[in-house]
Design goal:
six-stranded mixed β-sheet, alpha+beta, 39% helix
Amino acid sequence: MILTCISLVVAISFFVFWFPRDKTPVYVNYASSIRDQYLKHLRKEYNVKCDGFGGSFLYNVKQISLALSSNESDVNIEKAREQHVNFTEEFIRRINRDERIRPYLDHYPFSPEGVSIRIAFEASLHGEDVTYVFYSRGNVVYARPDVETGLLESIFEEPYEEAVRIVKEQGKLRGEG
């Protein structure tokens, strides 16, 4: 019995005194700082709020994810494209400009593959517009809930590079250069 108690005390002491309390890698803190500053900007400039965030940070910064919501409704593909491309491109610029995080990026310059932004819009009254826009496997996906099932259905998909080209041609790409 005494041997069991001593073993238990030793085991607990090991975890309490020898295990570091905060093992958050520095690059996670850098990514969080960039993310938080960007979310503050989005909230102030576009009245967009964050519903969630995450990413892939096991050995380095492989991906940073943002789930955003906008109170805009009656959003068509053109408007959803413009917002998604601009939000993504600005986030990428902010990440690439931050010299502290560069050594920890999975690839530099960071690219759309490293940023996952999902924007949810208010549902329109007539159900014809985009409710969600997100990046998936090189494409921008525009979606809305199916009227009958309520399940999310893709209404249009295009390569990310094509979406950027269209927004540029329309002169709506903000903050270039």
